[in-house]
Structure prediction request, 110 residues.
Amino acid sequence: MESSLRKLQKIEADILQVVSKICDEEQIRYYLSSGTLLGAVRHQGFIPWDDDIDLAMLREDYETFLKVAPGELKEHLVLQTPYREKNYLRAHAQLRNSRTTGCSREDRKA
Prediction:
């Protein structure tokens, strides 16, 4: 039986494919970072316990992504940013699949 974490990682891999396509089409540079980079190099995928995807962009590319992504995303993918949501508590953007439910330990404290 497939674990909940593995199901989550597959959903995240699908989201990453969408981000990659947008970035390729718009010539936006992005980089895997943190656990995502380590997982790609060491495990040829995810670190077995990792539950997110970490990307980095130079500011110019990030601003371009924030402008173009909303028009390119499938309807179930939601781009959350401090600029778009009144009560968004993070300083960085997050891309979520609205067909799924998840709550980090950090979010449960809020």
